[in-house]
């Protein structure tokens, strides 16, 4: 496997967050494919229990175990894990207290759900702890099991609290295995080996959430990664034409002449309906383009690397994931 310089050399945990509806899970899946390309082994982790990874890759629901789900471009494997907080807690009880049977008994009477409900910080420690363990894991020869781990994390509004596990468990345990576990997680999450990436659209609300999320992470001392601008539409006309359309609109009569010249409209008096409809479409496209330019300028204030991913004409199917993975690699994000 040949070395390749990227913007995130040395990063082994890629946390992907974003406002709902921005395509966060799709971008996380594409990033995993991009990181695995060329013969690497990557683990894609889901922590919200939505089975989003299974839906994106069009496979059956994932159990609580690591399994191979895709082959990356040029070789390389993507494995996936859907973390179930209850299973993670049973694993935790067995690992630190040697109480496998007792843990199963607690699960049967509902105490596991009760514990994670009254102490939501504990739930976050369990799922981030499982991910951090995968980042640190080595085989019997001392080699890393995974070259990188990608976490499909909670939405932007919750990401700082989710990752700031030491603060979250401060009221639960000051010493002992729970606190030690949280400190281990913090040691991974807050290290240079981690980057928290944001997924956004060129729309006001997602952009503002992204800027707020970046500021909150930096205030908490957590590592900000890149900003993935998803579903980007191309500018279909020269900038001068778009600016003119946004300001005054395009004269349907002028459009009609152009349509007639290329044989798309009959030589009839006045502007045909197709020219009027086209004028409205161009004006709408121009206004949206102007909005998107403004949102790009807003994102620049975050002072983080930005990557643009195209709007997929056929939707986010498996072929689309590979297209996005290629775009990610071409821009140096993986």
UniProtKB/TrEMBL annotation:
GO terms for molecular function: ATP binding; ATP hydrolysis activity. It holds the Pfam family ArsA_ATPase. It comes from the Bacteria. It comes from Sphaerisporangium rufum. Residues 13-169 form the ArsA/GET3 Anion-transporting ATPase-like domain. InterPro entries: ArsA/GET3_ATPase-like, ATPase_ArsA/GET3, P-loop_NTPase. PANTHER family: ARSENICAL PUMP-DRIVING ATPASE ARSENITE-TRANSLOCATING ATPASE (PTHR10803), ATPASE RV3679-RELATED (PTHR10803:SF31). This is ATPase.
């Amino acid at each position: 496997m040949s070395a390749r310089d990227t913007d995130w050399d040395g990063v082994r945990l890629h946390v992907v967050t974003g406002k709902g509806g921005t395509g966060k899970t799709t971008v996380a899946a594409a990033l995993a494919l991009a990181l695995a390309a060329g013969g690497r082994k990557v683990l894609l982790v889901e922590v919200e229990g939505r089975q989003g990874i299974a839906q994106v890759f069009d496979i059956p629901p994932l159990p609580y175990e690591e399994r191979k789900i895709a082959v990356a471009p040029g070789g390389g494997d993507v494995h996936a894990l859907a973390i179930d907080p209850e299973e993670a807690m049973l694993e935790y009880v067995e690992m630190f207290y040697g109480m496998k049977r007792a843990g199963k008994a607690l699960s049967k009477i509902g105490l596991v759900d009760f514990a994670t409900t009254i102490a939501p910080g504990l739930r976050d420690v369990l799922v981030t702890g499982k991910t951090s363990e995968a980042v640190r894991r080595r085989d019997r020869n001392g080699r890393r099991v995974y070259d990188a781990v990608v976490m499909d994390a909670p939405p932007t509004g919750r990401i700082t609290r989710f990752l700031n596990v030491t603060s979250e468990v401060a009221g639960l345990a000051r010493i002992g295995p729970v606190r030690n576990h949280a400190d281990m997680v913090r040691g991974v999450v807050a290290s240079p080996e981690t980057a928290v990436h944001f997924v956004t659209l060129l729309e006001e609300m997602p952009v503002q959430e992204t800027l707020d999320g970046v500021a909150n992470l930096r205030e908490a001392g957590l590592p900000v990664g890149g900003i993935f601008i998803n579903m980007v539409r191309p500018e279909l006309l020269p900038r001068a034409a778009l600016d003119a359309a946004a300001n005054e609109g395009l004269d349907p009569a002028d459009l009609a002449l152009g349509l007639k010249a290329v044989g798309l409209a009959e030589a009839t008096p006045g502007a045909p309906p197709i020219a009027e409809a086209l004028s409205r479409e161009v004006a709408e496209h121009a206004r949206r383009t102007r909005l998107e330019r403004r949102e790009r300028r807003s994102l620049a204030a975050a002072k983080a690397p930005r990557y643009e991913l195209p709007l997929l004409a056929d939707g986010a199917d498996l072929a689309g994931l590979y297209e996005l993975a290629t775009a990610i690699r071409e821009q140096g994000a993986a």
